[in-house]
Amino acid sequence: MSAATTNTASATGTRVLVLNSGSSSLKYQLLDMADGSRLATGLVERIGEATSRLSHTLLASGGAPGTSRTREAPIADHDAALKSVAAELAADGMGLESPELAATGHRVVHGGQRFTEPTVIDEAVLAEIERLVPVAPLHNPANLMGIRTAQALNPRLPQVAVFDTAFHTTMPEHAARYAIDVRTADEHRVRRYGFHGTSHAYVSRRTAQLLGRDPAEVNVIVLHLGNGASASAVRGGVCVETSMGLTPLEGLVMGTRSGDVDPAVIFHLFRVAGMSVDEIDILLNKKSGLLGLCGDNDMREIRRRVDEGDDTARLAFDIYAHRLKKYIGAYYAVLGRVDALAFTAGVGENSAPVREAAVSGLDGLGLAVDAELNAARADTARLISPEGARVAVAVVPTDEELEIARQTYALVSPEPARE
Ligand code: AMP
């Protein structure tokens, strides 16, 4: 299902409210797509608990922090959470009824094979997102809750779903399929979907812009290294491979996820260690990765320990960097020619040692970082490879909210959004 097959909506305003609903949280940003500026941002935490908290920030022009308000009071559910957010926005003169609001853009984690583009939400789209709950049991129900609540609050406002998986639906079949029995795989929709797609789309395009080139001409390897982490290979703006699979567990070493393991590890833990399937699920998703290896999942803390000579932290760091290097090599081979390697998200944007370790020894592939450029701190997109390097190495801050707003606005407005 693509945008072209759904109902279209048209808008007069230029603002987009971006909603990211988690199981017990609701993150939001209000952006003005006339110039891409951010007007307000906030977070509702611990929905359904006695200690819920809403933090709302009205931004000054240019995106600088303006006034912040925090409210601590029980918020029973997503409906109450979004009503509180709407009240905060209304208090700043930017309520959901405002004619300047063009649409709400929802981050939806799993769009399966059907949703290849951002899509205006109607009943058929909601039903399909619901049908995908078995492959995204933690995320899609929360996303659905956010959509239904937003619809109820202002039924006339177009709601757009922007899927984490959509950017990866261009992967060729030989990259998307696991080598398992085809009938079993198809019956249960077992294939590689990939996640973080909004970030990979944004960062690969920004990297081409940084090089002053058309994204359609540029091949980029993107390393999205946050608490969750994934790599992608993007050929001429089109994703051809990514490291996450049926779920976000596959691929790189992450904050708490193992990434790649021999699937037989699961049978072994089940049969020999007597662990239940749920216990193994928790082990691999929540107690593994950097946390499982050294007790910390924050790269700042791990580097502090490494600098103090802690061998356990050093080994965790080395395993993390080794896996990155394997993926860089693999994606280099998949692409054949690489123009740029881009680092993004919390670790990728901030950890010079990770960037240095990931490309060390890859001079033969034309990959290297300039020590001084790599160490310099900045929050803008920048090159860190030596002058004249065969492959550009870049640090590109990701902006998933801006990308969701851009894709949402493109769908509901006749005017192109400015970047
Ligand atoms: P994200 O999921 O993109 O918000 O990334 C969160 C992760 O980024 C944290 O768990 C840290 O490991 C890492 N991180 C954030 N700031 C820094 C920093 N200054 N240096 C190294 N790692 C950082």
Automatic annotation (TrEMBL):
GO MF annotations in UniProt: kinase activity
Matching InterPro entries: Ac/propionate_kinase, Aliphatic_acid_kin_short-chain, Aliphatic_acid_kinase_CS, ATPase_NBD
Binding site for Mg(2+): 20, 400
CDD domains membership: ASKHA_NBD_AcK_PK
EC number(s) given by UniProt: 2.7.2.1
Annotated site (Transition state stabilizer): 196, 257
Active-site residues from the entry: 164
Free-text cofactor note: Mg(2+). Can also accept Mn(2+).
Cofactor(s) this protein cannot do without: Mg(2+); Mn(2+)
Chief localization: cytoplasm
Keyword terms of this UniProt record: ATP-binding, Cytoplasm, Kinase, Magnesium, Metal-binding, Nucleotide-binding, Transferase
Annotated ATP binding sites: 27, 224-228, 298-300, 346-350
Catalytic activity field: acetate + ATP = acetyl phosphate + ADP
Compartments in which it is found: Cytoplasm
Keyword Cell cycle in annotation: no
The family this protein is said to belong to: Belongs to the acetokinase family.
This protein's name: Acetate kinase
Native species: Streptomyces gossypii
